């Protein structure tokens, strides 16, 4: 991998981030041209108080002045004050990053491992009952809206069978510490993580199955069998390593959605992460929080897409630039 190729990809990523930065400012002003009017609707706040709030947050300034202030503050990693809490936006959202990374990260790893293994088994036994069972079941979960699947699991295993809590990240009445506190978090994590794992499973299973089926038609597998290598060794040494390339790329891209991929599920299970913060900010609307979250989500996707680009070239010499 040469330096010119890496530099080109990095510049492309920064250009995309700058484009997102501009869209991030104008998009929410098009959607909500009077955020304080919406935020205080029905609260009987005097008109002069609403005007004072608009002045305090700089919304009475011309759009170009607001845009320049937004660029300057963002360059200093200052996302302004929340309309709802009047606290710095970063202070409001930084504590919600860890719950989302825990939930979506665990789900992404589980779905990737289980989905890839299931896809390889289905491909190796193509046309069998095992293949049909794996492909059909993973596609059923993949086609379901994740919030609907979460509501079904919540009703079954938290309401009908009260095995798990109905929401939250921990029992507010508990004063447990150490291992007991982790066990309590794991119990609250189980249902939302299961929902996301089942929802993401089909994507990895179908890509792994297709990748292995492509490899299984290659001549070197026939040669390996002709040399007397057992079928399981042919699969382990030759077929699976060559089928992993598209899966590595898919996993790297999906990691970019770790921060933003659970808005509906976090809302269903009252999980205190960035997804639920996004829902609360949309209800406002709380423009500074929405801008910060949208920029954070976009930056994560752009970064992991850059990683996927570089990783793909490193893993596959055929696509390396000359």
TrEMBL record:
<keyword id="KW-0813">Transport</keyword>
<feature type="transmembrane region" description="Helical">
    <location>
        <begin position="97"/>
        <end position="124"/>
    </location>
</feature>
<feature type="transmembrane region" description="Helical">
    <location>
        <begin position="289"/>
        <end position="315"/>
    </location>
</feature>
<dbReference type="InterPro" id="IPR000515">
    <property type="entry name" value="MetI-like"/>
</dbReference>
<feature type="transmembrane region" description="Helical">
    <location>
        <begin position="145"/>
        <end position="164"/>
    </location>
</feature>
<keyword id="KW-1133">Transmembrane helix</keyword>
<feature type="transmembrane region" description="Helical">
    <location>
        <begin position="12"/>
        <end position="32"/>
    </location>
</feature>
<dbReference type="GO" id="GO:0005886">
    <property type="term" value="C:plasma membrane"/>
</dbReference>
<dbReference type="Pfam" id="PF00528">
    <property type="entry name" value="BPD_transp_1"/>
</dbReference>
<dbReference type="InterPro" id="IPR035906">
    <property type="entry name" value="MetI-like_sf"/>
</dbReference>
<dbReference type="InterPro" id="IPR045621">
    <property type="entry name" value="BPD_transp_1_N"/>
</dbReference>
<keyword id="KW-0472">Membrane</keyword>
<feature type="transmembrane region" description="Helical">
    <location>
        <begin position="243"/>
        <end position="269"/>
    </location>
</feature>
<keyword id="KW-0812">Transmembrane</keyword>
<protein>
    <submittedName>
        <fullName>Peptide/nickel transport system permease protein</fullName>
    </submittedName>
</protein>
<keyword id="KW-1003">Cell membrane</keyword>
<dbReference type="Pfam" id="PF19300">
    <property type="entry name" value="BPD_transp_1_N"/>
</dbReference>
<feature type="domain" description="ABC transmembrane type-1">
    <location>
        <begin position="97"/>
        <end position="308"/>
    </location>
</feature>
<dbReference type="GO" id="GO:0055085">
    <property type="term" value="P:transmembrane transport"/>
</dbReference>
<comment type="similarity">
    <text>Belongs to the binding-protein-dependent transport system permease family.</text>
</comment>
């Amino acid at each position: 991998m040469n330096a010119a190729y890496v530099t080109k990809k990095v510049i492309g990523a920064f250009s995309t981030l700058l484009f997102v930065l501009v869209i991030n400012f104008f998009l929410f002003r098009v959607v909500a041209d009077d955020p304080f009017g919406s935020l205080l609707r029905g609260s009987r706040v005097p008109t002069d108080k609403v005007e004072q709030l608009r002045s305090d947050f700089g919304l009475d300034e011309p759009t170009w002045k607001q845009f320049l202030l937004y660029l300057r503050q963002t360059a200093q990693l200052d996302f302004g004050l929340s309309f709802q809490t009047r606290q710095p936006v970063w202070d409001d959202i930084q504590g919600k990053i860890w719950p989302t990374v825990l939930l979506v990260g665990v789900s992404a790893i589980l779905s990737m491992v289980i989905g890839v293994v299931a896809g390889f088994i289905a491909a190796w036994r193509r046309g069998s009952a095992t293949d049909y069972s794996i492909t059909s079941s993973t596609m059923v979960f993949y086609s379901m809206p994740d919030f609907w699947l979460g509501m079904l699991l919540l009703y079954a295993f938290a309401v009908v069978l009260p095995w798990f809590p109905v929401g939250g990240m921990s029992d507010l009445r508990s004063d447990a510490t150490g291992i007991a506190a982790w066990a309590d978090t794991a119990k609250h994590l189980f249902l939302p993580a299961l929902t996301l794992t089942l929802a993401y499973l089909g994507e990895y299973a179908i890509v792994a199955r297709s990748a292995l089926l492509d490899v299984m038609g290659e001549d070197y597998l026939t040669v390996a069998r002709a040399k007397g290598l057992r079928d399981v060794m042919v699969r382990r040494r030759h077929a699976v390593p060559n089928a992993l390339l598209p899966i590595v790329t898919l996993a790297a891209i999906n990691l970019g959605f770790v921060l933003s991929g659970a808005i509906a599920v976090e809302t269903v299970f009252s999980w205190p992460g960035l997804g639920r913060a996004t829902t609360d900010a949309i209800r406002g609307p709380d423009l500074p929080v929405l801008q910060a979250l949208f920029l954070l989500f976009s930056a994560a996707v752009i970064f992991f897409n850059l990683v996927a680009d570089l990783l793909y070239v490193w893993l596959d010499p055929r696509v390396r630039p000359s």
